[in-house]
Each structure stands twice: as C-alpha cells, then as structure tokens.
Amino acid sequence: MSEGLFVIDRNRTILSYNHSAMQIFGIDSDVKHQNLLTVNRSIQFQKAIDEALCGRHSSETITMDDHCYQILANPVVQPTDSSTNSTQGEEDIIGVVILAMDITEREAREQYRREFSANVSHELKTPLTSISGFAEIMMNGLVRADDIPHFSKKIYQESQRLIVLIGDIIKLSQLDEQSELPEMEAVNLLELAQHATELLEESAKQHTISVSVQGDAGVIEGIRQILEEMIYNLCENAVKYNIPGGTVDIGVDARKGKALLTVRDTGIGIPKEQQSRVFERFYRVDKSRSKDSGGTGLGLSIVKHAAAYHNAELTLESVPGKGTCVTVAFPLYDGSENAE
C-alpha cells in the first residue's frame, strides 16, 4: 500500500509498520519496539495520537520535505466482558492504527482553486465598479449631454471586457473538467495559423507589425475550437507585446512523429525569473500594458491547458528586448494522409 502504516500500543510503542511509512518518515533502520516519538515529534502528529488514545478518531495534517500528509489515527478497542458489568472506558483502548496519506497534489489543487476564486473576484469587480460608477453619474443627471457618448462608450468597453473575461473563464473551466467538449477530429494546424493571422490583420497594421505564416500542413487529432483559441492567443500576444515595426513569424513543421507549431516575435521579451509563471492564470508580465491592451491574463493559461489536453509539449524561450518564441509539439495524427 502507498499509505504509511503504523500500529502502536497504549504506551506508543511501535508494534508494526510498513515500507511506505519508512519512505514517508525517512526511516533508515528498524524502529520496531521503539517509541513513536522517534519517528515524528510534530505537534499535529502527536495530537492525532493523543486523540486516538482517548478513543476518538483523529485527522491532522503535517508537512515534511515539501510534501503534505494527512494523518489518520484510529483507536483499537478491546471488547469488554459483559459479565463483569463494566463500562467501556479508557482501559479498553489497547492501541492505535495510524495511516499517513500523501495529499500534496490535493492541497495544491485546493490552494489553486482558492487563488483562482480570489483573482476572479478581483478581475470581475474592477470593470463592474467602473460600469456602476458611470451609470450612477448618468442616472443622477450629473453628466452634460455632450459627455453622454463618452460615458456610454466607457460602459460599453467595460461590459465587453467582462464578456471576454467570463468567456475565458468558461473555456478554462471546460478544459479543467473536460466536459461539454466536442469530439476530436483531424485538424490542419497550418490552416488554423493562417486563419489566426487573418483575424489579427487589423491589429497588426495598427501596431505596424509584420506577420508571416509558413510550413507544412501538420495535421493532428484535436478539438478545432480549442486549437483555434490556442493559436489565436499565441499570435495575439506576439502582436500585442511587440515593438513598432516588429515581426511575428508563425511556423508549422511536421517531423519525427510531431507537428511543431512555433510562434516567434521580436517583442519586449520576458525576464527569465518570470518565464515559469507566464502560463499562470491572471499572471501578467507587464500589468499596465496588459490592461491597456484589454488582456484578461488568461490567454496563456488557456494555451497551457489546451496543450495538456492534446498531449502536447509546450516550451518557451525569451530574451528581454529581443523577443519570445513559443513552441507547441503535438503528436502527429495517425490518419493524416487521409485528412483534408
């Protein structure tokens, strides 16, 4: 069993334990017949044992070597002899069975959810506060007639920001739960890349960015809608965080059983210490620039989840002031020769 197991008597003497317990608690020699204190002296661990020795089931959480463990302690009770008319008491508890379960991943997920909920609340509150403020001023007649179009535009922009944000949250939720997703099909990455550049053509012109697409078909098995969103987000970031007169080169290359999608830009780049965090939800390298460009902070997180859903490897290389290159390596579709 993967859980650590100890059996102790009323005096906390170890009667039995398993190999997993040795690994979890770093035991490198025989501890049988020794006191359980020799294994772990943490307050939470001892509290769990104390509760069990008092006849109560106990659960505590301890942290060791960057791992989180749930300690479950249950009393072992010896049946009383009914003929003696004695009542079951402390003397009937003859020992404790202890289980140690690694809950590191579960705790990380819970922490992730808590942080995500807090971030969502903050991100939703900001545009809603603006909308409420503008609407209140207009409702109270404190706006000149000439200023009404300006305030109406602000309300519209903030509402659109909310719509985009909620849409991104829904997409991430679907990827997390892997629910309500269409069936996979043969998808041509080169066609999706070309379509993304068409959608970004106006934005690229405004930023005087030159965008090019080249490569092979790179047919993979996937969900078209999610892949379109992934490629669009990568290309949009390459345009938004570029420099005036910069370039964005999108390539699709099929080789060695992989379809490689590469998005390379000559933009502002990402500092090395922040590169491991750019795919986190709501994380922004340049917060002021992200806000001005209307970013939700969820685009790269969608890219990361979409890559994981399609069993693709995601890598990022970036040098501040020189640009960024993101590569997504997908498994090639087995039936690619029959795909359109």
Number of helices: 9
Helix content: 25-40%
Gyration radius from CA atoms, angstroms:
29 Å
The SSE string, one letter per element, is EEHHEEEHHEHHEEHEEHHEE
* Oligomer classification: single chain
Which geometry do the CA atoms define?
elongated
Q: What's the arrangement of strands in the largest beta sheet?
A: 2-1-5-4-3
What fraction strand? Answer: 25-35%
Ends apart, CA distance between termini: 50 Å
Which residues form runs of ≥5 with pLDDT under 50?
336-340
Q: Please count the beta strands (DSSP E, at least 2 residues each).
A: 12
Average of the residue pLDDT scores? 85
Biggest β-sheet description: 5 strands, antiparallel
Briefly note the structural class of the backbone: alpha+beta
What does this structure look like?
There is one protein chain. By secondary structure, the protein is of the alpha+beta class. Helices cover 39% and strands 25% of the residues. A hairpin with a 3-residue loop joins β11 (313-319) and β12. The longest helix has 36 residues, at 104-139. It is elongated. The model is unreliable at 336-340 (pLDDT under 50).
Give a summary of the structure in a few sentences:
With 340 residues, the chain is an alpha+beta fold.
Which tags fit this structure?
5-stranded mixed sheet, 340 residues, alpha+beta
Q: What's the helix and strand layout?
A:
Blueprint: E1 4-9, E2 14-17, H1 19-24, H2 43-53, E3 58-64, E4 67-77, E5 93-102, H3 104-139, H4 148-177, E6 185-188, H5 189-199, H6 201-206, E7 210-215, E8 219-222, H7 224-240, E9 247-255, E10 258-265, H8 287-292, H9 299-309, E11 313-319, E12 323-331
Parallel strand pairs: 7-9
Antiparallel strand pairs: 1-2, 1-5, 3-4, 4-5, 6-8, 9-10, 10-12, 11-12
Helix pairs in contact: 3-4, 4-9, 5-7, 7-9
